[in-house]
């Protein structure tokens, strides 16, 4: 068991199903092996040009990836089954929408400064995938922020004045310049990049390799 937490930087988007899957798999592996981890979330927008009203998710997936409706539904079923094993509920609906997430990343930046970054991140994943809440709606976002103990009025003000937009854009640019083109992307101990949801066993092997010699983050 490591005594110093292993730093893991996770680049992700809250409308990315494999991001929550990968995170839950990583956490399960860490808990099973007794590995202490120090998670740092970073922004990535799957659809930076998505309009405010969003787009039907099935239509979006079919357009973006060239998949058929049957393939899209099969992928939903697969994700739902994986989610069950990880105690995460995916409740996909035909009218579910893909949203622009830039505002969510601004609130996450603020929440991290307040020590609530992980709380808000998990709440946003659940809001989108389990409860189909509209993450393009400022009122919904402010409500979710208040539900994890953040100040609703301040959340509303942030969404109006966009005070963290430059910081979020700069961080997004930093990670794309590091070669990140898809998520989830995890950087272990500031040097080992792992992309995609790898599965509990693979994450357990990664953690074991990085901690065997006592190597850990600063």
UniProtKB/TrEMBL annotation:
SUPFAM superfamilies: Thioredoxin-like. GO terms for molecular function: oxidoreductase activity. It comes from the Bacteria. Coiled coil: none annotated. Residues 8-207 form the DSBA-like thioredoxin domain. Pfam families: DSBA. InterPro entries: DSBA-like_thioredoxin_dom (IPR001853), Thioredoxin-like_sf (IPR036249). This is Putative dsba oxidoreductase family protein. It comes from Octadecabacter arcticus 238. The lineage of its organism: Bacteria, Pseudomonadati, Pseudomonadota, Alphaproteobacteria, Rhodobacterales.
């Amino acid at each position: 068991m490591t005594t110093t937490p292993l730093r893991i930087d996770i680049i992700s988007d809250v409308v990315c199903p494999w991001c929550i899957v990968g995170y839950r798999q990583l956490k399960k592996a860490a808990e099973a092996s007794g590995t202490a981890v120090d998670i740092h979330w970073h922004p990535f927008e799957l659809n930076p040009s998505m309009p405010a009203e969003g787009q039907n998710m099935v239509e979006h997936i079919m357009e973006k990836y060239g998949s058929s409706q049957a393939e899209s539904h099969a992928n939903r079923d697969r994700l739902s089954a994986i989610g069950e094993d990880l105690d995460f509920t995916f409740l996909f609906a035909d009218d579910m929408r893909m949203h622009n997430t830039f505002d969510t990343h601004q609130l996450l930046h603020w929440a991290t400064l307040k020590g609530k970054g992980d709380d808000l991140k998990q709440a946003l994943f659940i809001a989108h995938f389990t409860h189909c809440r509209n993450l393009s709606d400022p009122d919904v976002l402010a409500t979710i922020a208040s539900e994890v103990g953040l100040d609703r009025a301040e959340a509303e003000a942030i969404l109006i004045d966009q005070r963290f937009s430059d910081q979020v854009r700069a961080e997004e640019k930093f990670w794309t310049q590091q070669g990140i083109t898809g998520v989830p992307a995890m950087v272990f101990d500031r040097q080992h990049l792992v992309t995609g949801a790898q599965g509990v066993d693979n994450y357990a092997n990664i953690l074991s390799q990085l901690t065997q010699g006592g190597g850990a983050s600063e």
